[in-house]
Amino acid sequence: MIRLALSDLRDHAATWVGAFFVAIACGCIGGWIAFLQSTAGSYADPLRTALQNAGSMMLVFSLVAAVAVLASAANLTVSAQRRSYALWQLANVKPRMVSAVVLVQLAVVAIAGAVCGTLLAALSFEPLFPLVFGSRDEIAQLTPYAELSFLPRVWLVVAGVFLCGGLRGARAAGRTPPLAVLREPEPKRMGMTWLRAAAFACLVVCTCWMGSILIGSGVDEAFTWSIFMPPLVVATLVPVAPLVLSALLRAWTSLVPQKRWIAWYLARRAARFGLAASSSVETPVMVGFGLVSGVFSVVAGGVAFLKDQGVTDASGLDASAALLMLGGPVLLCAVGAAVSVVMSSRSRSRDVALLSAVGARPETLVAAAVCEAFIHTVTATLTGAVATIAAGAIVNYAYGWPFFAGLTFGEGLVVSFAGFALVLAATLVPTCMALGQDAAVVIAATQE
Fold this sequence. Notes:
Helix content: over 70%
Radius of gyration: 23 Å
Main location: membrane
InterPro entries: ABC3_permease_C
Protein name: FtsX-like permease family protein
Transmembrane segments: 12-35, 55-76, 97-123, 154-173, 194-215, 227-252, 273-299, 319-343, 364-397, 403-429
Pfam families: FtsX
Distance between the termini: 23 Å
């Protein structure tokens, strides 16, 4: 089994490299969190508490993005490999063995990426520590300490999230009839599993519980805890993201006339058909936009309320706090969005070659790639905006403040523009490469 898993990883390295880079990003962020905790242990209060709080904030906000991105990347990787798993079953490999091999592959990629990521964190922690805490002089002057004994915990956590995220895909790889997989590369529908439904229900309960705490607490306490409402609301959307994103994509793109521009028609059909790829591309952008816009909106609304109550020294996020809370999630979301498209580049090259073979013009296919990146970004941004509005409304209701007070999308749009640029680049590269080759050669290569 181990030999089969490792040899398949080697033969399909291009498919697994995306998940590997996501694991590197998670390992790097996890390494920073571990090193902040080890540095905190070298000092007494209040510096110890400040460093521990910084690590805790980084963990909470990064964990939301990590779970969403890792699960999407793992499921997309397994989905892209379904043809290979079908061939294994045709070669008399038992379904349970197929699922076990997939889990082994996920664990190997996760641990290898996490090890590389923590090594990167070890190299960058000391030189970047003063820059990250540049707006807090009392912390920036401390001597950072990177305790390497904490790193195995990070590797295990990343591997655990990878395995949990890819469990559904691993089971599907073993249970799907081989001939059905060979006939159809991806299921037409993406249903709601009991695990996703249970996670959604639990997160809804947690969100309501947090809202009741905010409503029943004083202004100062509500302002302190309100910062955790945006990641909680965004996390609530993640289990139902495939359904919500698919419905929203279908709704808003239908407003654009389909018959007047063939490039838009092709882009819409590609985005709607590739459910696994679409949700894996859109979910990271949705999470990044929702976290960034939600945090800045909640803080802006709270500061405005405190100033209205006569608190003159109320201020928003400083650079260090913003970087610690949002730097990790933005990094993960950017990497997740880009690699999701790269991981599906093989099927994209095949589709471009097929369209070229039936007479589609190159400029039409390039325009379709641009439109598809635009569709993914707008869909994710609209969903993230819903999360931002919901989080802001809950917090403002606790203040007795207008629902839309402090609402801002500007900072989140920076994430959307960056996501669009990454997705566009990752979409155009395989399209242009396929256009530069003979269509028959590309089709034959992708069928191997």
